[in-house]
Amino acid sequence: MLAYIFERFPKFSQTFCYREVVELVRQGVSPYIFSLRAPELAQEQDWRPEILSSVHHLPEGDAFAALADRAQGGLSRDARRILRQWRGQRDSLRLHQAAYIGMQLQALEVTHVHTHFAGMAARTAYWICRFFGIPFSVTVHANDIFKPNDFKIGLPEIFESARAIIAVSEFAATYLRDKFPEAAAKIHRVYNGVDLNAFPRATLARPPLVLSVGRLIHKKGFDVLIDACALLDKTNFRCEIVGDGPLRDQLQAQISERNLNGRVLLVGAKTERETAARLGAAAVFALPCRVETDGAMDNLPTVIMEAMASSLPVVSTEVGGVSEMVRDGQTGIVVAQNDARAVANALATLLRDEEGARELGARGRERCAELFSVEENVGMLRQIIL
């Protein structure tokens, strides 16, 4: 029997996790789901009631403290000793969560735990393994491996203890094998999956829409995209950036400074269905992501996968696993990061050559179907962790 532990489930910005659970259920595997924090729900999102009702959200504060105290009675002497040693230390809550969840997992006869991100949930799974002997695996994504937080139980401890480590790109898998050679045999590449049926083919309607989607943070390169749009002053197009985040005011000021008001719009966060509709109305998808000075970067942006599923040509950069999706000249155009002129030239090419853009988009959808089918990738994950 399988259980999932998430830091937060469902979470609006992590629809790939929700999508994975839904596909597991469709394939006949109904995992027990534990969420360490309250869900992040959007009323308009198409959350399935039967999935939401199956999630056990841990209580917080005094309510959880009482439950955790009771759970300690079922721990081994060694586990209780470790709890005493960790009392008052940073991240000691993970041990108490492990005691509480682990007791329930035992009662449910769970034989394996899976987590996403090498963070809070993975550290909890680590302690469940220590206390109860229940093996776990972890899917790692981007900043959790490229810019990990500094905890006493970090990547070396998690990777040593985990039965399997799932990287969502070949780039990340190679990176981890080089950095953690002792864990190389446990590292597998399984792409995030997408349901092509949820993304209708784009019509590439005119006047053309350049679309970008993501949290408004530096590594996404939205400032580069805005500068690229300013260089296309004689080209007939409009641009929408879907998403929200801490750089919204800064990006809006940049749009005004470049005299792009009404032409480049920050349209806020959208649900998956709304995003799919905007992808279907677009002519080009652009995400000029970058590697930050501290090493933070995207790995396999799900939205590029979704754009390819929508038959859109993609303009992006060779960052992380992006080039595993966007093949330069085959499914889109890959440019250097932080190069607004290169982005502008790529956009101009695709906006000018509608037939060529359609061919790139069609090949992108074919590549998406070949590599990123949620059905096939969840099936691959099952073979590894079950």
What does this entry look like structurally?
With 386 residues, this protein is α/β, with parallel strands linked by helices. It has 17 helices and 13 strands. The protein has a seven-stranded parallel β-sheet, with helices on both faces. Helix 14 links the parallel strand 12 and strand 13. Helix 10 crosses helix 15.
List the helices and strands and how they pair.
Layout: E1 2-8, H1 15-26, E2 32-37, H2 49-52, E3 55-57, H3 61-71, H4 77-86, H5 93-107, E4 112-116, H6 120-132, E5 136-140, H7 143-146, H8 155-161, E6 164-167, H9 170-179, E7 187-189, E8 209-213, H10 222-230, E9 238-242, H11 248-257, E10 264-268, H12 272-281, E11 284-287, H13 302-309, E12 314-317, H14 322-325, E13 332-335, H15 340-352, H16 354-371, H17 374-385
Parallel strand pairs: 1-2, 1-4, 2-3, 4-5, 5-6, 6-7, 8-9, 8-11, 9-10, 11-12, 12-13
Helix pairs in contact: 1-17, 3-5, 5-6, 10-15, 13-16
Shape verdict? elongated
Helical proportion, percent range? 40-55%
Number of strands: 13
Per DSSP, what share of the residues sits in E-state strands of 2 or more residues? 15-25%
